[in-house]
Write a structure and sequence with these properties.
The protein is 31% helix and 14% strand. The chain has 287 residues and is of the alpha/beta class. The protein has one domain: 3-Layer(aba) Sandwich (Rossmann fold), CATH 3.40.50. Strands 2-3-1-4-5-6 form a six-stranded mixed beta sheet, with helices on both faces. Helix 1 crosses helix 8, helix 2 packs across helix 8 and helix 3 packs parallel to helix 4.
């Protein structure tokens, strides 16, 4: 009589997803979108709340601006130019992006795109130029030079900035798969900028981008963004690395391949945008 070989029971692997999202973004999506669309600064010195994005090259700063534009327009937008293969910062100029609300009318917040940070001392934006931007000393259209800091008297230097010219919210942008790989020099540069913003009382947030590239479950379904255990760990790592509170760190999937507005992508973008506007409004009210 032949012996029967018993099969081993299947291995039960833990799910990469939480049962419930650790941050809810979908339920309040419409309310959040209405909030940012109807926002008006109470401080009459300012027409547009200014949000400055900074971070390593290729982090998705310009793509986030395009993603916000896409959400607001309800269609694909690409005014902030991006490049996936150059290996250096594609953004060279200090440029303000305002978003059309209706003919001749803009929404009451604006983004500034800026040259990316690089690890080497002599490449990427100079941290001192970034500090000048925080204070409103960099004119729109100024072309950054890694080898030369902007100085008083230069064409791109704004010697008498108004409250409108100054930065009201600073947002760090880092790709999800780069959080654990940030070099000591890069962390030092980011913390240097954070310290300068803190001294000026400027509120700070961060967005972690390219979450779909880092997490297969999010690539399959973007609504899993705040269910992913892996991405939750990235938020914790970023919190430990740079000291930002976890409620100031947001996960975002930017528009890249999509040519239509997508209600699975939009809620996380709008959630982050609402907090940027809210924190910026608090700052303006303190001025």
């Amino acid at each position: 009589m032949g012996s029967s070989q018993s099969k081993a029971p299947p291995v039960s692997r833990p799910s990469p997803l939480l049962e419930q999202p650790w941050r809810e973004v979908s339920e309040k999506y419409k309310d959040n979108l209405e909030f940012v669309k109807s926002y008006q600064p109470e401080n009459e010195q300012v027409k547009h709340l200014r949000i400055l994005l900074h971070g390593p090259i290729g982090a998705g700063k310009s793509s986030f601006i395009n993603s916000v534009d896409t959400v607001l327009r309800g269609r694909s937008a690409g005014r902030a130019h991006t490049d996936a293969i150059s290996g250096s910062s594609y953004t060279k100029q200090y440029k303000t992006f305002k978003f059309p609300k209706s003919p001749g009318v803009k929404y009451s917040f604006a983004f500034n795109d800026i040259m990316g940070l690089e690890q080497d001392f002599d490449s990427g934006i100079n941290v001192n130029d970034l500090k000048l931007a925080l204070r409103g000393h960099v004119k729109d259209g100024y072309k950054f030079n890694p080898d030369q800091v902007l100085m008083r008297g230069d064409d791109g230097y704004n010697s008498d900035p108004t409250l409108e010219d100054k930065v009201h919210v600073l947002v760090g942008v880092v790709p999800a798969d780069a959080v654990s790989r940030l070099s000591d020099e890069m962390v030092k540069k980011i913390r240097n900028v954070r310290l300068a913003a803190s001294e000026l009382g400027i509120p700070q947030l961060a967005i972690i981008t390219k979450v779909d590239e880092a997490c297969p479950e999010v690539k399959k379904d973007t609504s899993n963004i705040y269910k992913s255990k892996y991405l939750k760990e990235k938020v914790e790592q970023f919190h430990q690395l740079l000291g930002l509170p976890k409620n100031c760190i947001f996960l975002v999937k930017n528009y890249n391949d999509e040519i239509e507005s997508n209600d699975k992508i939009n809620p996380a973008i709008v959630c982050a945008l609402k907090q940027m506007v809210t924190y910026g409004e608090d700052y303006l009210n303190d001025q």
